[in-house]
């Protein structure tokens, strides 16, 4: 038997599994079939309330839409946060159509923005987080042609990294942002060119569970923002401090102590350098807001024994939930939390391997885990499926149908 991650507290301890107070079969009937992602809006609400309680006043919360762009979820989250961060024209179109957010609270980051993407953002009045000097030139030229004053921020490739993060994005050569050594010159140049300078975007990493690492990175980010602003000779209206708040996917992972992060940020902001006195701050979060709200439900199609090992073959797989198979940014494969959603209380358990329906050995969803005995027709739940699931998986691979998605718990 191999261990698996802990089932999120919002869903733990019930048999059968309850999501927003209803069983998996109720939600499957509502959606029409499996495989199905169910997102519980109540979980997102509680995360946002925790953030607001922990963080000092003057720190805005932005949602990084890339974590989960399911339209009803983005529409729900829009009014609950202060800003939305998008990373493509598609995401920008989506949030402008449904989130109810003013363009001024939308920011657009990401390398390789095409001219048509810059054009759309400039026309809309969204903030463009510039990833390079070349992108700045193109944005200024397009704004000139359109006759608009561009809202531009400079994304900095920091000379710091987020220690212990699953995805490091600072402290090295990078396609993301302008190297810290050159960022002040770019700020001065875009101000000189007549842009409406929105400030700095400094994102050092993702999926960190160590509060101390985030505290140190935020302190270093504040110091860097002050240094760059002094060098550029202008106070930034906004400093986006990045995010990086992680969630506990795997055995031995502990939830991030957000209260400790907030307490340290309160102290750091109280002592901030003078040039940042009137600056607003933002933290942009994806997975910490939505990762734990999602449950992927997939039905057992076959139960088979091969050379003494029991396999449950389900109707979903890595084409919907790549991350649970260990093929999305992890070095060593470990088990996500899983459960038999349809199990009754006190069912006998067994050691089983849950595999998807794709004809590849990569499609491994849970390896030798201890679960209640399940038969064809039972439903397996894979937790931590609210971020980088449906939209971050190779849905066209092997031409199976896409997963259904459902937002529930809005009333809760
Ligand atoms: C610029 C930026 N913002 C936000 C995120 C979202 O990260 P997470 O979902 O881990 O919060 C990422 C992730 O790579 C990112 O690159």
Please describe what this structure looks like.
- There is one protein chain.
- The protein is an alpha/beta fold and 412 residues long.
- Helix content is 28%, strand content 25%.
- It has 10 helices and 21 strands.
- The radius of gyration is 22 Å and the shape is elongated.
- The two termini are 37 Å apart.
- The model has no long low-confidence stretch (mean pLDDT 96).
- The site of pyridoxal-5'-phosphate has 15 residues, from strand 14 and helix 10.
- Pyridoxal-5'-phosphate is lined by residues 64, 67, 85, 109, 167, 203, 206-207, 243, 284-288, 387.
Short description:
By secondary structure, this protein is of the alpha/beta class. It contains 10 helices and 21 strands.
């Amino acid at each position: 038997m191999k261990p698996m991650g802990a089932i999120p507290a919002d869903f733990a301890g019930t048999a059968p599994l309850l999501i927003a107070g209803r069983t998996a079969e109720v939600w499957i009937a509502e959606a029409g079939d499996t495989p199905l992602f169910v997102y519980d809006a109540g979980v997102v609400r509680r995360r946002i309330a925790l953030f607001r309680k922990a963080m000092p006043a003057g720190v805005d919360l932005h949602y990084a839409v890339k974590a989960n762009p399911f339209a009803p979820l983005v529409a729900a989250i829009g009014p609950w946060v202060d800003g939305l961060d998008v990373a493509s024209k598609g995401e920008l179109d989506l949030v402008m159509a449904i989130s109810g957010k003013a363009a001024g609270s939308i920011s657009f980051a990401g390398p390789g923005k095409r001219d048509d993407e810059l054009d759309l953002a400039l026309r809309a009045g969204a903030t463009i987080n510039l990833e390079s000097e070349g992108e700045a030139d193109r944005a200024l030229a397009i704004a000139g042609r359109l006759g608009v004053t561009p809202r531009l921020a400079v994304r900095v490739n920091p000379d710091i990294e987020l220690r212990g993060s699953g995805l490091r994005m600072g402290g090295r050569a990078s396609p993301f942002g302008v190297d810290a050594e050159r960022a002040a010159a770019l700020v001065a140049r875009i101000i000189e060119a007549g842009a409406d300078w929105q400030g700095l975007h400094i994102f050092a990493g993702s999926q960190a569970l160590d509060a101390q690492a985030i505290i140190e990175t935020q302190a270093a980010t504040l110091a860097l923002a002050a240094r760059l602003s002094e060098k550029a000779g202008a106070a930034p209206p906004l400093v986006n401090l990045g995010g990086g708040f992680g969630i506990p996917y795997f055995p031995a992972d502990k939830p991030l102590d957000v209260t400790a992060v907030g307490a340290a940020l309160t102290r750091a902001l109280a002592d901030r350098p003078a040039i940042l006195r009137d600056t607003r701050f933002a933290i942009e979060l994806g997975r910490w807001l939505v990762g734990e709200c999602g449950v992927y439900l997939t039905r057992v199609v076959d139960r088979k024994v091969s050379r003494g090992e029991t396999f449950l073959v389900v109707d979903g797989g890595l084409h919907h939930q790549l991350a649970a198979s260990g093929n999305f940014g992890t070095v060593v494969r470990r088990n996500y939390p899983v459960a038999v959603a349809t199990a009754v209380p006190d069912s006998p358990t067994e050691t089983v391997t849950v595999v998807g329906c794709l004809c590849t050995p990569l499609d491994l969803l849970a390896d030798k885990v201890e679960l209640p005995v399940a038969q064809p027709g039972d439903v397996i739940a894979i937790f931590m499926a609210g971020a980088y699931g449906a939209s971050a998986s190779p849905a066209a691979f092997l031409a199976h149908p896409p997963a259904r998605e459902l937002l529930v718990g809005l009333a809760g």
